[in-house]
Amino acid sequence: MTPETFKSLLAGHHSGTLTVPEKQQLLSLLHDPEYREELESLFTEDLSSEDFSATATKEELDMVYERVKLQTTLREPKIVSFLPVLRWTAAAVVFFSVAFGAYYLNSKYNKTVLPLEFAGQKGEYIKPGGNKAVLTLSDGSHIALDDVANGEIAKESGVQITKTADGRLLYTARPGLSHVKVGYNTIATPKGGQYRIALPDGTMVWLNAASSLKYPSAFTGAARNVELTGEAYFEVAKNKHLPFMVKTRNQEVEVLGTHFNINAYEDENGVKTTLIEGSVKVRLPSNKSTVLKPGDQSDVLTDIKVSQVDASSVIDWKQGLFWFNDESIFSIMRQFSRWYNIDVEYRGEVSNIRFGGQVSRMKNLSQVLRIMELTKSIQFKVEGNKIIVMPYTEMAIKQ
Questions:
Q1: How crowded is residue 170: how many other Cβ atoms within 10 Å of its Cβ?
Q2: Alpha-carbon span 372 to 377, nearest angstrom
Q3: pLDDT tens track for 256-290
Q4: More confident of the two residues 39 and 113
Q5: Beta strand spans in 7-158 (E)
Q6: Quick check: 77 pLDDT over 60?
Q7: Is the pTM of this model over 0.85?
Q8: CA 82 to CA 110: how far, in whole Å?
Q9: Nearest 5 degrees, angle CA 110-CA 375-CA 192?
Q10: Helix, strand, coil percentages in the chain from 3-state DSSP, rounded to 5
Q11: Residue 272: its pLDDT value, please?
């Protein structure tokens, strides 16, 4: 694709004239580092067209990049635009399009441009999460994985436990020690933490913030049993003779070898299991069960409900992204609370505010709040480590 075609897609996005296939094309290009560089060039090249004659700071460029990506969806959402049409200049691009594409239901809105200074740098000291976890061995000892040096950190129950340089916990069988009694380990991430672990059978597990996984130091017996609280993505090593079982509140998932995600946070309504590849069986304590196929998501509260979802959006958290699909502000702030380790308070009526879009989990909280405030549907106040969520009002802006 030529740079001119890419620029044309960006201009079409700005004017709202892209077709669904063109949106799909633009979205795929924005994930390609080559075209990220091309987007940057729009602000640095000395182009003859006056449309690109201005310059922008790196922070402004990052904002533009995120908002283009956020607004470019594969469907035709009912996106409410709070900003008037602006000239296509590098300076104006900083303001173009609504950041997340806010779904502001049953509400009237003001079309006055919201200045970037409103959100300012509130919460700039609140950093995103990272690789943080505590490993609890079967003898009760605790190892803070973000503090311990890379390399072997423990030997237990016939396995060597290693922390790798790329932020993984690796279990490796040690020859000649299979007679050692198997013990149970637990890896737990705090708020603002995540971790990846290679279990003794080779199964890979990505653990999201405020989550824990209990597992044996070696898999023996008739099944590979683990227990999960919070959220994790599994890539299970195939073994048709030894099923892999994941126990959470209200359900058990049985697999032979597959890729799937489980969201079992206590503060969410129900347990959601999303199948990416292969097949899994979701079973309730009553023994009622259902088999999922790729793209299926089961939702378990008192019964099993199955629906088709965009599975890639469900697991974007492990790729360093938030992906919101017409989600309530309450759901979004629960995710922010876990990842940024913040408390949340609500003031005023915000239950009718919903968002759709994608944003990096690697951004400071101030940048994410700033993008959301540009929709003029929501505003935030930061008090220490607490975020106060309020509906947008012109009066509050001036205070």
A1: 17
A2: 8
A3: 889 999 999 999 999 999 999 999 999 999 999 99
A4: 39
A5: 102-104, 130-131, 134-136, 142-144, 151-156
A6: no
A7: no
A8: 7
A9: 150
A10: 25, 35, 45
A11: 97
